[in-house]
Specification:
Layout lengths: L1 H19 L6 H10 L2 H29 L6 H26 L2 H18 L2 H12 L1 H35 L2
Helix pairs in contact: 2-5, 2-6, 3-4, 3-5, 6-7
């Protein structure tokens, strides 16, 4: 029994050492993977979506801060809300300019490369690149955004149904 435990421990230590010393991918290999996954265009699309959504989020947040400020009377609150409205076009334009700047995508891209290197080995990156260049990988890149959107809708429906049931049960 002692020999079996010793052999098992030795195998585990060897496996852990092998995993710990797996070669990290080169920057070029990571960039090749990112190219295969169209990461740059995905990042640019995310920035464009953010540039459209962020002004509304900021407006709602600013309005909430003004409405919930106990130090303001009704006239001051009204004036501050008008100030928020007056400033929103300039804020929106500035945000859209910044978030649609191609240099921002370049900065993001360059900062993401080392993240891949921290989480994937050279072999992982090689295998992922091969997969995303394959017909199945290319199809997954095309289908995945719609699949994720559809999944989010299903998840929202399911959670709403459960929330309703919980509300009914706790009356």
């Amino acid at each position: 029994m002692k020999k079996f435990v010793l052999a098992a421990v030795s195998a585990a230590v060897f496996a852990a050492a092998t995993c710990a010393h797996a070669a990290p991918p080169s920057e070029a290999a990571v960039r090749e993977l990112m190219e295969a996954t169209n990461a740059r265009s995905s990042m640019a699309a995310s920035m464009q979506n953010m540039s459209k959504a962020l002004p509304q989020v900021l407006r709602l947040r600013a309005e909430a801060v003004v409405r919930n400020n106990p130090k303001l009377n009704d006239d001051q609150r009204k004036a501050e809300l008008a100030n928020v409205e007056r400033r929103m076009p300039a804020i929106t334009a500035a945000l859209q300019k910044e978030l649609n700047d191609p240099k921002l995508v370049d900065e993001l891209y360059n900062q993401v490369v080392p993240m891949y290197a921290r989480h994937f080995t050279a072999e992982d990156v090689k295998a992922l690149t091969a997969f995303y260049r394959s017909p199945a990988g290319k199809k997954s890149l095309q289908v995945m955004p719609q699949l994720m959107a559809d999944s989010a809708q299903v998840a929202q429906k399911l959670t709403q149904e459960r929330a309703k049931r919980i509300i009914e049960q706790t009356k």
